[in-house]
Every structure is written in C-alpha cells, then in structure tokens.
Structures
1.
Amino acid sequence: MPGRKRQQDLGNMASLSERQRDILGRVRAAGHAEIGALARLYDVSPQTIRRDVNALCAADALRRVHGGVELPRQGANLHYASRRSLNEGAKRAIAEAFAALIPSGVSLAASIGTTPSYAIQALEGQRDLTILTNNLNVAICACDRESWQVQLPGGTVRPDDRDILGPGVEAFFARYQVDFGVFGVGGVAEDGTLLDFTEEEVAARRAIAGNCRRSVLLLDRTKFGRPAHVRGGHLTEVDHVICDAPLPGALAAALAARGGEMTITGEAQ
C-alpha cells in the first residue's frame, strides 16, 4: 500500500495545472497562503482554490491548515516530483548556464537533487563524459547518452528522493578526482552557510566538493532563507555559483574576494 500511494502521489504531481504549479511556487516562497487571498489573486472562487490545494496536498507537496495552506512540516524536504516541478523555469535556465561551462571529454560528479538532474540533462551537446553520481535521475539520463560513462555507488536507495546516501557514497566520491563537481543545497542561511536536511546529504555534497578540480553550486533564489537545518560548508568556498537572481550583496562580495565566480541567469519568477 505505501508503494501504491507513492505512485499515486507522483502521478498527481505530473498532472498539475499551471495554476497549481504557480500556487506551489508561491507557497514555497512565502511558506503559507490563505485560500481567500489565492482566490482573489487568480480571480476564481474559493472552492476552485480548495480543489487546487487539495491536489497539492494529496501529492504531499503542501499541508492544509485552518483557512489556508502551508509547506509540509519543517525539517522535511518535499517529495522529488514536487521539487522537480517547483521553479522549473529557473532550474532549466541555471542548467543551460551550467552546460555552457562544460566541454566534452571531462569527468563530473553530480549530487542529489532536482537542479543537478536538469544540469546533466542540459549537456546534450557534449560527448565522452564520465559521470559519477548518487542521483538516480542523473544516472538514468546519462545512460541514454551513447558516448558517456556512468558510475554509481552501492547503497540503499531513498525511493522518495531517488538517490543513494551513506558512508559508502562518501567513500565512492573520495576515490576519484573529477574535473567538475556539481551540486545543489537544501538552503542557504543569511550568513552564507550551506544547509541540507540530513547529515548524510551534507556529507555526500562535501565529498563531491572536496574531490573535484572545480566546484559548481546550482542555486535558485528560493533556497535563500529556506529552513533546512543541517550545516555543511559555506557559499564562499565554492568555485562557481550559478543562480537565477543576484546574490545578497555581502555574499557576492565575499565570494568574489575569495576568487569565486558567479553566473546570474536572470530567469524571472
């Protein structure tokens, strides 16, 4: 039964309307929304909005509260399908900017998360790539490219997140020195600390960053202030940050002072 429910939830996410996706993005940015305010914003009835948010709640993307809707409980990430559809335009723009940095014939380590999967998907023009990843969606995409090689660590799969974590993953990345390490994060604190939802996520990300010649952080603007709670690394330790909006001034200056680069895609949300 749990497996059947998971498949139903993923199917619900795939069939969301444009308005439902927009509602999800707005609640993701603000943390909550009132039914009445959403009805006025979209010029529809409260009953219509209730049907929209009920669909989002059925997919475990949101949670109903009295008079409105909010994100799932703090400290838990959204289901992969929910996250993949969230801010999709920004993520695709970030992915295209990443693809412009990557030549053929190099090696990459790619982390868990939705934005790295978009980034690897965008490398459709590159040949002879070697991809190391604990992200199953990245692996599936990479397997479709005739001249690419794909390597995965052993371990237990997290079905809802479509990835592999644990000490074996950290040891896997530590065995290699790749040309590029590409990763996202659960959130970025005001002081630039990088945040994720579990210690295993942080450890895997840091293993990638520590075993590559050039680290690339893919970051959409909603990650700033997001309440992930496990600390691990700092934005200024990254070689290149690609974001859909300018970084806060102090962080941008600190990154530049340490020799880091920025690419701003300018994708409006």
2.
Amino acid sequence: MRWDRFFDDLEDQLASEWEAERAALDTEAERLRLSRVALKDRLAQLVGRERVTDSPSFELSDGTVIRAEVSGVGPDWVALEPDHGRSGAVLAPFASLTSIGMPHPDLLLTARPAPARSAFADRLTLGFVLRDLVRRRAFVAIHLASGRQLTGTIDRAGADHLDVALHEPGSPRRTDAVTGHRLVPFGAVSWIRVDGPALV
C-alpha cells in the first residue's frame, strides 16, 4: 500500500513537471511569434473591428492627435476615418506615427495571430496610393512634420516624393488658381487629409 502511494506521488510529480515544461514551451513559442509581428499586421486587425470601445487615437509627428477608425493598411501607411471634423479620409505613413492609444482589449486583439494578407495588399505602397489620388485629382491637405500645411492637388507621385500644385481649398486645380508648386519627400509628410470618400 505504501508503494502504491509512492508511485502515485511520482506520477503526479511527473505530470506536474510535464505541464510546467509544456507551458514554458508555449510561452516561448508565443514570444517568438510576437517578435515577428509587424505594425502593419497589428493595425490590420483593427480594420472593420466591432466598435464596442472608443476609437484608437493616433499621435503623429507634427503633434496632431487624431481619434479614428482604421479603414485600410498598406506596407508603409494606414488609412483612417476620423471620428470628428471634416469629412474625408486621412492617410498617414507609418514613419509619422509616434504612438497609438487604444483600450486594452483592442491592444490584445491586435496581438492575436493575423489572417494571411494577400501579396497584392503588400504591394500597395504609399506611392501607389498617392498615384491613385493623382489619377482622381483629389484635393488634399498635406501636413508636414515641421507643422506646415500645404493644400492643393497632387500632380505626380514618385518612389519617395510627390509634386503638389498649391491652391485654395474648394477651388479646382486650374492654372489660374495655382499659387505655387512644391516637391515634397515622403519623409517630410506627417499625414494627408483627402477630401471625399474613404481611400480604401
């Protein structure tokens, strides 16, 4: 009888050690998975989320804070639908995001394993989206990291810069309405407000 109890204790101890080892392996595997998660993957988890909590707040390099829902994510940009203010969409390069505030449940949601993204979505760079704005002749307000704002229409978008024809809000891009032109490196852009429907 004493031996039976001894073997039961050994079996319980072995099972307990096995569970502890398995939990440690699961924890290490989760740490390894999280070490490979990119910002675009975490933000993509917020697209179309159920709005049971406040919208995330995005702090940008020019000091602006925008409370908004994520409407689209590319490899180097995020599209936002602001909660308040003028209609239209906001496009922000990842490099201009200084912090993102959100309720803890949403923070945990963004850390979950994400569904696979299409290869096409990963090719939709900031330049690609800006070239679509060129095609649509959309009015934009470009907010620079320096705090300045440029308003007008984007004429061209290269690999790492854009050309903007400056004109007053509400006026179409006509030669007589243009007050100047600027060539703007993407690195100087904090965020872009686009008049009209959402970007994506």
3.
Amino acid sequence: MTASVTEFTVDPWDPGYAAALSVEALAELGPTSAELVLDVERDAADWKPVDPPPGTVAPEALLIADGVRRIDARVWVHDPSSPMPIPGIAASYAAGIVECGPSGARLAALEVGRSLFSASPYTPEVKTTHATYRAERASGPSMDELSLALQRQVTQLEVDLAVKYRSLADDLLLVDGPLRGRTHLPRTVGYIKTHHTAYLPGPQSAVVSALAPGQRTPVFLMGTSWRRHAWYVRLPVRSSAPWAGIARCEAGADLSVDEVVRLADTLTLVLPSLAGVDYKDPRAPQNLVPIGGLEKLLRHRLGDPALLYRALRTAAHS
C-alpha cells in the first residue's frame, strides 16, 4: 500500500524569527475589528493585482529611515516620595537614514541617543565614564510602559533626523515599521515586514496571495486606534508560501486618492530592486538590503553592551 503524500510549503523566513504571516493572522482571514474602506482606488468587488502604470518614475531620491534600541541595564530609581524603589531601564538607541539613488546607496544621517526611563519624577540623568543617559519619564512602571517610552524616543529621533536631513522636493521617505507618530511628515510611507493581523476580508485577501512580484493590491483605508491608507506589495521571492515576499505599506489618511496611488505606484516600481536575498538575510526579501545594512551599522554604533553595563554599575555605586 502506497502512503499518501501531503504537500506542504516551507516559509522562506529563518525559523529563528517570527513567520512573515503569523498563525494568528491566518486564523483571522475573515472580518476583523479594524475599520476598512476597500473602495478607495477601485470597487471592493473589482479588486485585482495592480502593476505600476507606464510612465511611473522613481523619485529623485528614496530615503530609508530605521532605528534600533537596546536595554543596557534594568535600574531602580530611589524616589523619596515612594516607599519602594521604582523600576526603570537604561537604554541606548540609534536612528539613521540611507539615501538610495541612481549611483547606489549611501549613509546620509545617523544619531545615537541614550536615556534612563522611569515613571518617577526624580529620574536622574546618569553620567558614566563612557556615556550619559538623559532622564526620560515613562507613563508607568511596568516593562510595557518603559518599553513604549523607549520606542517613542526612537521614533522621535527618526522624525528629527528626517526633518533635519530632507532637502529635495521630489524625495520619498520610507520608514521601517508602522507610520504611526510620523504621519505628519510629507511624502512618507511606513513599511511593515511582518503581519500579525490579516486585516482584509477573504476575497481581498485572496488578491494579496495572487500578487506576482512587482505587483500591489489596490489602496484601501484602515482604522484601528488610528487611521491610514494602506496597500500590500509582493517582492521577488522564490517561495510559493501564501504570503511570501509580502509587505504592507502605509500612508497618511489625509492624503488624496491621487497622492496615495502615486506613492503606491512609485514604491511598487522601486522596492523590487532593493529586496533582500535569502542567502544573505534570513528575513529576505522583505528586509530590504538598505534596511539590513543600516540596522547592522546602527547596532554597532550603540557601543559595547558589557562596557556600558559596567559603567552604569560603577556610576550607581559612586
């Protein structure tokens, strides 16, 4: 008797990372609690893969911004108004911008910050022999609240760099991650590599799975705790996994349909040439080559974690 063979597909991402599309998202391919307006660019019943139209041109410069963060030490702030010490974190973070143009990619801007986060109004600035950690207030003492305060600082550093660096009227800024906190920046798109929630109903989600490399879905409007335009795009990939090579892009909700469609077409044209390759990056192709290179450089610039940890301990006992 011949045993039956069950077909399966291996997700192209390294198993050390979360899958590009999580099991939870696959289970939510029906309606979600997100507010959706599907007929922004075309009727919901008429969704199909979209190719960049003839005449679509690359921007004068594509700027890619990213940030990294690292907790150097967990700390306790001795607050005179509290009977118990208040937990905090000492963290290093960095943000940078890569400019991509006809001649290649180059580092355009980079900045490192260090802060001590705590809910205490008595959070001190900490000066060590190797670095100074500025005092920053968190909304509460839990690790989630401390982590959120750190992430807000990373986002603000990215925003500050973008405002200082951008000079071309025809540039386009791609930020790694959701656009939240950066919707006020002009000509800016958020780039999401992993999918923890499948926002689209079944028929439109099937269009995502049907995308060929270099194609996108129609633009739609989505709202959770905040509103934004969005679309999905597929990058070049060898895998046949349902959402292999799929990234989601986000743009401001206040943009006109023409503006959003122009951004979507431009990025769908440009992104395939920047896609990561699987023999170099376990998160390929969604982890774009400039993003991977920038992340590596930013982490290096954070400094030696063991050295900073020892410096913080020395400062605490001085």
4.
Amino acid sequence: MTIPLLPLAACCAMIAAGVTLLLERSLVRALTGVIVLGNGVNLLIVTTGGAPGGPPILGVTPPAAMADPLPQAMVLTAIVITLGVTAFLLAVVHRSWQLTGSDEVQDDTEDRRVRLRARRGELSDAVRRRRDAYRRLVIEQRAELANLEAEQAERERLEEADLERRIDRVHIELERWMRDRRLEGMSEEELHRYFEEAGRREDAAAADNVLRIEELRDEHAHRREAQATRERELRRRLRSRQRETRRQMRTAIREERARQALAEDPELKGED
C-alpha cells in the first residue's frame, strides 16, 4: 500500500497547528485548536486506512474489492465527539465573556497559594541547610584549633619532662660520684676543694653552655612565635570563611525572597 505524501503532510501540519493552539491561554484559540486537531486526526485515519474500494456490503461488492469500514466508522465517531467538545467549549467561552469580559484563562488562586507555600518551604529548607553547613564548618575549625593547642601543650609537657629527667640524672650521677669519693677516703674539705678547681676549669665551658642555653631559649622562642603566627593565621582564615559563609547565606536568602516576591499574587497579600 502506498500512502500519498500530500495528504500526510497536510495531516501533520493540521495536528501541529491544533496542538499549538491548544497550548494558548485564550479559550477561542483553544476551541480552534480542538477543531483543527480533530480534523487533522480524521484526515490521518482516512489517509492511512487503506486503498479506496466499493461499499462493504456482501453480495454487492466482492470481498477483495471492499473498502475497510473501520476507518470510516472511527472518523464518524470522532466527528460526533469533536462536535460535542466544540459545543461545550463554545458554552464555556460565552460564559467566560459574560463574567469577565475576556476569554483568557486565569491562574487558579489555590494553585498559586500552593506554589507560594512550596517556595517558602524550599526557602526554609535552603536556609536550614546553609545554617547546618555553617555550624559544621565552625565545629570543624574549632576542633582543628583545639587539636593544635593540644599538640602544643603536649609538646611543651614533653620538653619539660625531658629537662626534669636530665636534671635528675645529673643529680644522681653527682651523688654517686660523691659517695664513691667518700668510700675512697676523701674528706669533705678535699671534695669542696675539688669542686672549686673543677669550677675554675669549667668556667670557659660554662660560658659556652650559657651561650648554648641562650641559643636554645631563642630557638624555643622562635618556635613559639611561629606556632602563634600559625594559630593567628588559622583564626584569621576561620573568621574569613565564617564571614564568607554568612555572606553567601544572606545572598541566597535575598535571592530566594526576590524570586518569591516576583511570584506573589496580589490577591494573596496579607495571608501566610
């Protein structure tokens, strides 16, 4: 079976025009779209219904030469349905013109109210999510600062414990040496004189030790200053990120309120 292209193209054009008119807000255009769409579908059914033939009556037309009666019955039924829909839409257009003086379909007030409530719910959810994210950011940064402070305190405690162990070890060695000298028969005067001679011999070394101690103190002060600088930098970044997060949250709230204001219906002012 060969389908003619010209009727098929006319069907496609009529169906497209009918669908486009149905999407308009004007009831008159919607009525025209129903009529055009119905005629286009009827023409499509007749075009694709098969080759022409004789009347489908037994004894009058041979079975091989009969036309298919189903497309014709479907088209007749569709014509009746289209006529009923057309009459209904005409009544609706006439009543709308009497009540409002226009055939434009207005937005339903309840639909707009539901949409506004949904937008308010979305705004609340967005604000809640941003506040939760901000709280999590603050908690994480505070935990990071607490970890840094704990590490610094632990490092200082370990240094103090190591210094105390060294001092205790020196005292123990000194007591052991003095006890050994006493067992060997050395008197207290000799021990005292020995300490004085050792002190004079180690004056130069003591000066070097003082310089070394000063260097260690300077190094320790530098480390503490570097640690304090890192903590100040971390706190500055924390405050900067907090300000940026608050600014983004306020911007999002303002944008959402602006979109909500654009979508408001004047009839809904004063309602929640």
